[in-house]
Amino acid sequence: MIDPHLLLSGVIFGLSMGSIFFLMTIGLSLCFGLMRIISLDQLLYYSIGAYLTYSVSLAIGNVWLGALVGVAVAGITALLVERFVFLRIYARDITFSMITSFGLLIGGIGVIKAVWGLVPRPVPVPIEAQWNILGTEVPVYRITVVLVALLVYAGIWLFLNKTIIGKAIRAGIEDVEHVEGLGINVYRLFTLTFVIAGGLSGLAGGLHAPLIMVSPDMGLEVLAFAFMVVIIGGLGSIKGTFISAFLVGQVVSIGSLVYAPLAQMAPFAIMLLILLIKPTGLYGSAMLKR
């Protein structure tokens, strides 16, 4: 029997972890949904966001400003990568984009090691206060991370459903040829989507940095969980990514309370079960080629 206070702490931990997973993988879903590419380099932008947060917080003592700088630099890096790399391979097979993006991730990790070294770096928690919820002390920062993820999801939904550019992106996700037929420059949509995805990945790194030790291989360490989230939710589905991220976060957190090995094993078991029932994921559609 799990202690109720420990269970509540586990739920909050799972929610914050799910929030990071969502911000980290939403870029993967956006890029696949519109461009039909698997952009593993999003995990590089996640690492960039974390390291910029560390550097700025170390220099001026402001973690929040560091996270904003991380988002900006991650977005700019994504823009350069999209312009000089992905723009040349959009027409290639999807496996080519996956291999290319993985190469970018490995190369980027090498650059991070050259700039920041191999030693893991700590980032201070910007909010050290705790709230007493049902007799359990809950870190306010973790609740803040959850609120940020919810605001991001709401912002993405409003952008895609209430703005002209967002509607064009959403239409492109459904049928890019039809959007091209309307005279819309889809490659500008691709660039905008890629920059947004990179910025959100950088935000994930910036928010996650105070909760972990920032290290060069942090992108590779979450690669398996990122794959699980997008596969369970359905590649290209924003709603599916949101739900599956929180599902995986809770499974990892509560599973570790029940039996430690479950934290690693249970998400894979759930993924396999869902794929057996629905091969395209919870909200995924059949794979198409661009």
From TrEMBL:
<feature type="transmembrane region" description="Helical">
    <location>
        <begin position="139"/>
        <end position="160"/>
    </location>
</feature>
<keyword id="KW-1003">Cell membrane</keyword>
<feature type="transmembrane region" description="Helical">
    <location>
        <begin position="43"/>
        <end position="61"/>
    </location>
</feature>
<feature type="transmembrane region" description="Helical">
    <location>
        <begin position="67"/>
        <end position="86"/>
    </location>
</feature>
<dbReference type="InterPro" id="IPR001851">
    <property type="entry name" value="ABC_transp_permease"/>
</dbReference>
<dbReference type="InterPro" id="IPR052157">
    <property type="entry name" value="BCAA_transport_permease"/>
</dbReference>
<dbReference type="GO" id="GO:0005886">
    <property type="term" value="C:plasma membrane"/>
</dbReference>
<keyword id="KW-0472">Membrane</keyword>
<protein>
    <recommendedName>
        <fullName>Branched-chain amino acid ABC transporter permease</fullName>
    </recommendedName>
</protein>
<dbReference type="Pfam" id="PF02653">
    <property type="entry name" value="BPD_transp_2"/>
</dbReference>
<feature type="transmembrane region" description="Helical">
    <location>
        <begin position="98"/>
        <end position="119"/>
    </location>
</feature>
<comment type="similarity">
    <text>Belongs to the binding-protein-dependent transport system permease family. LivHM subfamily.</text>
</comment>
<keyword id="KW-0813">Transport</keyword>
<dbReference type="GO" id="GO:0022857">
    <property type="term" value="F:transmembrane transporter activity"/>
</dbReference>
<feature type="transmembrane region" description="Helical">
    <location>
        <begin position="189"/>
        <end position="212"/>
    </location>
</feature>
<feature type="transmembrane region" description="Helical">
    <location>
        <begin position="6"/>
        <end position="31"/>
    </location>
</feature>
<dbReference type="GO" id="GO:0006865">
    <property type="term" value="P:amino acid transport"/>
</dbReference>
<keyword id="KW-0812">Transmembrane</keyword>
<keyword id="KW-1133">Transmembrane helix</keyword>
<keyword id="KW-0029">Amino-acid transport</keyword>
